Amino acid sequence: MKTKISILTISLLAIFSCSKSKKKVKQNYSESQTTFFQLRHGDWTSNQWIRNPQNLKTIHETFMKFGYIDLIGNRLGDNPFILQDLYIKKEPSHLIDSLILAFKNKELNVKYYREFWFRREQEKNDKVVYEILKDIKHSFKSKHSSTKQSMNVNEDFVNDTLYQLIKVEYFESPLTKEVAIKNFEKLVDLGFHESAYNLLYERSEYSEIDWNKEELIKKLKTTETYVYPWFEDNTK
C-alpha cells in the first residue's frame, strides 16, 4: 500500500511539475519614462516635481488644451471632493473662489487661506497657482454659461506626450474597436509598450473589444526588466 501511495504521490508531483514548467510567463515590454510620471503614480501631497512653477505651468497648459471640464466633469461641485489622498471638505468651486480672494488679501483672517498662500510663496509658485485657479474657475463658469468662452492656451508650455496620454485615457464613449486600435497604436508610437500590452489584456474597459490581440502584440518591443507602466492593470 505504501508503495502505491508513494508512486501516486510521485506521479502527481510529476504532473504538476510539468504543468508548472509549461505555464506561460508574461513578457516584459519597453515603456517610456516621463518627467511627469509621478503626476499619475506619485503622492501629490509630497511631490516636489509638481511644485516647480515651470512644471505647474506645463501641466496646466496641457490640461487646459484638453479641457479642464472634460477632465473633472462637474466635480468642482462635489462635497466632499476626494482626489488621491486629498480630502477636501468644502465644495471645490467655493474653495477656489475663496483662495482667489485671499491671494489679493494676504491679511485675511482665515488660517487655512493664509497658510495656503504662505506655503505657495515659500515654494515660489504662488503666482502660477493663482493663475491656474482663475483659469479653472473660468472653465467651470463657462461650462454653465450660455456664453461659451474659449481658453487661451500657450502651446509653448503644452507637453504633447502628456496630452496624447490624456486623450487615450479620456476617450469618447462608447469605446469602439476603431478607437481602441487607435489608442493602442498611439501608445506604441509614443513608446509606451507595457501600457499598450495592458490595453490588450489587462484593462477592463477594453475587455469587450474584438480585436486581433495575437497580431497586435507583435508590434510591441520586449525588454528584460519590468518598468511600471503609465496604464497599469486594472482588472485585479
Annotation keywords:
mainly alpha, two-stranded antiparallel sheet, 4 strands
Q: How would you describe this structure to a colleague?
A:
This protein is mainly α. It has eleven helices and four strands. It has a two-stranded antiparallel sheet with strand order 1-4. A hairpin with a 2-residue loop joins strand 2 and strand 3. It is elongated and about 65 Å long. It starts with a helix and ends in a 13-residue tail after the last strand. Residues 13-23 have low confidence and may be disordered.
Task: Give a short synopsis of this structure.
By secondary structure, the protein is mostly helical. It is built from 11 helices and 4 strands, in the order αβαααββαααααααβ. The protein has helices spanning 2-21, 37-41, 53-66, 68-72, 92-104, 111-123, 126-143, 160-169, 177-190, 193-201, 213-216; strands at 28-29, 81-83, 86-88, 222-223.
Topology:
Layout: H1 2-21, E1 28-29, H2 37-41, H3 53-66, H4 68-72, E2 81-83, E3 86-88, H5 92-104, H6 111-123, H7 126-143, H8 160-169, H9 177-190, H10 193-201, H11 213-216, E4 222-223
Antiparallel strand pairs: 1-4, 2-3
Helix pairs in contact: 3-7, 3-8, 5-6, 5-7, 8-9, 9-10
Strand order of the largest sheet: 1-4
Q: Please tell me what the overall shape is.
A: elongated
The biggest sheet amounts to: 2 strands, antiparallel
Oligomer: single chain
> Could you list the spans in which at least 5 consecutive residues all have pLDDT below 50?
13-23
Structural class: mainly alpha
Give the N-terminus to C-terminus distance in angstroms: 45 Å
Fraction of residues in helix: 40-55%
Please report which band the strand proportion falls in: under 5%, 5-15%, 15-25%, 25-35%, 35-45% or over 45%: under 5%
Number of helices in the DSSP assignment: 11
Question: What series of H and E elements makes up the topology?
Answer: HEHHHEEHHHHHHHE
The overall strand count is 4
